[in-house]
Amino acid sequence: MYYQNDNELIEHISKNQLDPEFRLSIYRNNIMLNLCRALEITYPFIWKLIGEECAHQIARMFCQKEMNLPVTNCLDDWGANFPGFLQEINSIQHLVYLKDIAELEWLIHKSYRALDFKSLKPGKLQKKLEGSGDLRLVFNPSVHLFSSLYSLKEIIEFIEWPDGKKIDLRHIPSYAVIARQKSQVMTHWISKDLFDWLACLKNRTPLMHAYDHITTFNPDFDLVAGLEFILKNRLLWKCLS
Q1: Residue 176, class by beta-carbon neighbours within 10 Å (0-12 exposed, 13-18 middle, 19+ buried)?
Q2: 3-state secondary structure the chain
Q3: Which of 137, 138, 157, 188 could cross-link 238 (Cys pair, CB 3.0–4.6 Å)?
Q4: What is residue 169's predicted lDDT score, i.e. its pLDDT?
Q5: Does the pLDDT value for residue 4 go beyond 70?
Q6: Which long-range contacts (CB under 8 A, 24 or more apart) does 58-61 make?
Q7: What CATH number is associated with residue 179?
């Protein structure tokens, strides 16, 4: 972390037994350590994939760029630029899936930090459906959708249970729903058709319009199973007519 004119800053530091420059250095190092620790908490999979030493070095490089510094006093709101920054590091560019893992982790973090909510009860949805099929379903604030060209599920399983497994880097797309249930964030790996249908709903497409859209690609899409998935995982927050 650097300033354009350290001398001006040092002049405002009261003198005691320690040299002002040394005290400023301690202050900067403490800030840097706290920022790096905040990134480690938000992106634990990245730390495990590339190793603690490498991750801390990259985190310090990230924090040394003024554009990446926090703009609020809450570090829980900070760190969204880190996934994109990973792509700029030559030494890890061969880890082509790394940015996607980091983006997934940021959504998990956002889901955990989302405002509290009350899920819509199945009975209320049933009554709404009986009244009109032209409903717009509104997901709760913790729900995020994410897709990747890589099999992130397999990569995350490798992180959590290594046991000599190898990561498959073939382009096997993966689709996920991230949502908080009580105090725990869950990542649900789903099919492309279910993902596309949920994406339509998240964009406030009416329920039956979203269904018609998906059945043009997959006539066998199971609407009932899709609704059961939403209710079982407490994704639904409101229904709009």
Answers
A1: buried
A2: CCCCCHHHHHHCCCCCCCCHHHHHHHHHHHHHHHHHHHHHHHCHHHHHHHCHHHHHHHHHHHHCCHHHCCCCCCHHHCCCCHHHHHCCCHHHCCCCCHHHHHHHHHHHHHHHHCCCCCCCCHHHHHHHHHHCCCCEEEECCCCEEEEECCCHHHHHHHHHCCCCCCCCCCCCCEEEEEEEECCEEEEEECCHHHHHHHHHHHCCCCHHHHHHHHHCCCCCCCHHHHHHHHHHCCCEEEEEC
A3: 138
A4: 67
A5: no
A6: 58/85, 58/86, 58/89, 58/92, 59/35, 60/32, 60/36, 61/85, 61/89
A7: 3.90.930
pLDDT digits (tens, 9 = 90+) for 56-69: 999 999 999 999 99
Q: What is the tally of structural domains in the chain?
A: 2
pLDDT at 134: 81
With 0.85 as the threshold, say if the pTM is over it: yes
Structural domain that includes position 136: 117-241
Whether 241 and 134 share a structural domain:
yes
pLDDT in tens, 153-202: 999 988 888 776 666 667 789 999 999 998 899 999 999 999 999 999 99
